[in-house]
Amino acid sequence: MINEITLRLNGETRTLDVNPLKRLLDVLREDCGLSGIKEGCGEGECGACSVLIDGVFMNACLYPVGKAEGKEVITIEGLVGTENYEVLKESFEQAGAVQCGFCSPGMIMAAESLLRKNPHPTEHQIREAISGNLCRCTGYNMIVEAVQLASKRGEGLW
Questions:
Q1: In sequence order, what are the residues at sequence separation of 6 or more whose Cβ sits closer than 8 angstroms to the Cβ of residue 152?
Q2: Which class in CATH covers the domain with range 80-153?
């Protein structure tokens, strides 16, 4: 069953002919050519496939593309080039919060989502916001430090 699905993807209206039950993750990677979004666990536990859907942090591996009809989807590619992304990227680099890079897009999406809601989060709130994202290399203390740094550097952005 193929349907026409229209959504806003990274600021651009896209109409796709896809099975509405296909995972958003697969549509973004296979049909839209976006490689920043990753599949880690495929079960919504690692955060490698994180996106914002109408501003809400979601795991694209659990989200059928049919539910994205008429919604705004932002991937890491949609953040690249924005002032928010530059602040986050520089903060992650300075804090040493990037090693292999596999989890970085999801961590940055989690940080963006948190800072949009709460530009001055506590350490506990940061840890809670990134709790659905796994990192096997860096360790969470450096990631928390990166989000705290971005919060300070990005004063007035979020």
A1: none
A2: mainly alpha
